[in-house]
Amino acid sequence: MPTLGSLTTAKPELELTFAWPQNSTAHFPARITGLTLVALAELLEVGSPSTLPADSLVLVTGVIPFRIRGRIAAALEALLQQMALDECVGLVVSTAPGQSGHQPFPQSLRDLSDDLDIPLLVTAAPGDRWTDVHAGIQHDRLVLAERRVEQMNALVQQLPSQLADPKAMQRIMDWLARALSAQVLVSEKERILAASPATAVEHLAHAAIRQSVENSSPDMTAGPHTQLITLSPAAGSEAVLAVARRAPLDDSELRLIQHAATLLGLVEQACREYRAVATASQATRLAAVELLLDGEIDKARRIMDGLVPGLLDSDTARVFVIETSATRRDATLRRCEAVTAGQALAVPDPRRRDRVLVIHPVWLGEAADGVVGELTRLIGDLRPGASLGGSGTYAISLLADALKEATIAARLALHQPDPVALSVQQTDLITLLPPGESHLWAHNVLDPLMLTDNWDQLRDTLHTALTYPYIVAARRLDLHRNTVRRHMTKAAEALGKDFASLTDRIEVALALELITHQVPDAPTQPHATVPPSLTVLLDTPQIRVWAESLLGAARADRRDLLATASAWLTANTHLESTARALGLSEVTVRSHIRALENHLARDLSSLSGMRDLHVALTFGTGETRAADITRGLYAVA
Fold first, then answer.
1. Pairing state of beta strands 90-94 and 120-123?
2. Contacts of 250 (CB under 8 A, 6+ apart)
3. pTM confidence score
4. Which end of the chain is more exposed for a tag (fewer CB within 10 A), N or C?
C-alpha cells in the first residue's frame, strides 16, 4: 500500500515535499488509502467538508499565496481539525514554481500540525499531474489485496506439510485473532493448547473447558458473540476452539471460523500423533546421549541419523543443564524440544528426575546464540524454581567434561538472582558478591581515603597504578611518575597497606571496583552496622562452586599446577623466588603459569586474573598450601 514516504520519493513528478515537521521521518510509514481534492475557493466559501475518507491524503487545489494568513490560514486550521477527526494522514497545498524551499505555513498552523500529528506538505506540480494519483492508489490497494489472497491460499496449501510444526497451531490462532479482531483459544479438558492474544485464556477458558467436561454439542454459541467448535471429533479429539469478540460475527466470519477449525483439527491430530512418535523415539535419543557421554561418537551418530540426519555431524558442542522440579520436568522437556527442534538434542537426565540435558552441536564459524537465547527465555518463563547452566564449547568427544561444567554452572545459577550461568569460567567474581554487604566492606576499607579532600584524584590514580607499573600508570594518567608515586604512598599510609604486597593490592583493588562499578540494591550506610570480613563475603556456596569450576581443568593436568600457583602468589609473583621455593627452573615455572592461563581463561599478568586465582585457591581447594597466601587478605574483619 502506498505511504507518504513512497509518494514523496517514488513519484518525483509530483514535486511533493514535507514542509512541517522539520524531521518528517516518523510520518514516512503512514499508509494512504486515497487522495481527496479540496478546492481553495470552495474551502474559503463553504468551509471544510463535513467528512473526509479515513487514511486519505488531502490536497488543497489552487495556488496558495506566498504567505498563508488571514482567511486562508483560518480555513486551513478548520480543515486540519476535520482531518484529525476523520484520521487523515497529511495535508498538501500547492505553491507557485520556484518556492520549494520557502515555508508558506505560519507558526499557528505548524503548532496545530504538531498538536494533531498531521504533517504539512507542499507541491509545486501543476494540477494535471495529480489527476491519476487517486486511481493509482486504489489500483495499488487492489493489487495488495489480491496478493494477500494469494498468500493466504499458498499458506493453506502448505499447511499439510507443516502440520507437525509445534508452532503451527499458535500461528493459525494469531492469524485468526487478527483477522477477526477477536479472542481465540484452543483447549482440552486439562490444558490450554493455544491462545491469542494472551488475555483470551482469562476470557474463554471457562466456557471452553465447561463444554469439554459436559460433552456438549460440538457446535454451539456459549454466550453473546461467542462460538465453540470441537476440533475433529471423528478422530477422537477433545480439543475445543473458542472465539469471542464484542461485535457480532457475520456469516462470512462464521464460515472463516469453520475453515480455521478444520485446519486446527488437522494440526491438533498431527501433534497428537507426533507426540506418540516422540515418546517412542525418546529411548533412542537417550541412548544416543549415553553413547556421546561415553565417547562412542560414531555409534551415537548412526542412531541419530535415523531421527535427525546430520544433527551430530559437527566436531564441537555445548551442553546445557536445566534444573527444575520433578513434577515440572516433563513439561520443561517438551518446551525444550519445541524451542530447540532440529538444532539440539534434549533428553531427560536418567540420573535425576528434576533435570533436563540439552546437547547443542556447534558448527565451526557459527554462533550458538539462537539456542542459548531460546533456553534463557524458557528459564525466564519457568522461574522461580528453574535454573540453566551451560558449558563452553567442547570437542564432541569430551562431552562428559562439558556436562560436568554445565552441572556446576546450574548449581551456581541457583545462588544467583538471575538463574542462568553460561560457562562458569566466564562468570565475573564481582557479580557473585552480595551487593549490600560487599559495599559495606569496601567502604570500611576505603573510608580513610574517601573522607579526604582529594579522594577523586586518589581514586583515579589508585585504579590505574594498582594495575600497571607506576611508569605506565603515569603515562596513562598524563602525570609525572613522581606524582603517581606520591599519591600511592599517601594512599598506602592512609589505608595502612603495603602496595608492594600482592594481597594488599588485591584487597584495595577489589574494594575500589566494588565502590566504583557495582550498584548496591539499596543505599548503603557504611557505619550503620559492623562491616563483614572479606572471608565472610567470599566463603559462600556460589563462590565455592565458581572456584571449583575455575580450577577443575588445572587440577586435572598431570603437572601440579596448583602448587606452582600457590607458591607463585606467595612469592608476590616473582619467578625466581617461586622457582627456588619449588626446586624448579624459571622456564618450568613460566610454562606452568602459561598453562594455568589457558585452563583458567584468565590473564595472570593482570591484577584481576591474579585475584581470581587467589580466591579460587583459597576457597576452592581447601588445602593447607593455600593458607600462606591468604593470611593477610582474609583474616582481618
1. parallel
2. none
3. 0.42
4. C
